[in-house]
Design brief:
31% helix, 2 strands, alpha+beta, 64 residues, two-stranded parallel ribbon, single chain, 2 helices
């Protein structure tokens, strides 16, 4: 599904690696696109992302 530019597929990492990945790859923005999680869950992820130096955005159904 990833297409020929990703011969090995798109890597999937555990959520607990997010702080390390933000720093390692100098990530500017993290986009969240789950639909079936609580507000508390989303906001905890937002806090984690922002605390590690990246911006956080939510994607709606038209963007995913």
């Amino acid at each position: 599904m990833a297409g020929r530019l990703y011969k090995k597929g798109i890597p999937i990492y555990p959520e607990e690696d997010l702080p390390k990945l933000i720093k390692k790859y100098k990530i500017d923005e993290v986009c969240f696109s789950y639909s079936d999680v609580s507000h508390e869950y989303v906001m905890h992820r937002a806090s984690l992302v922002i605390a590690n130096g990246a911006s956080f955005s939510l994607l709606g159904t038209n963007d995913t």
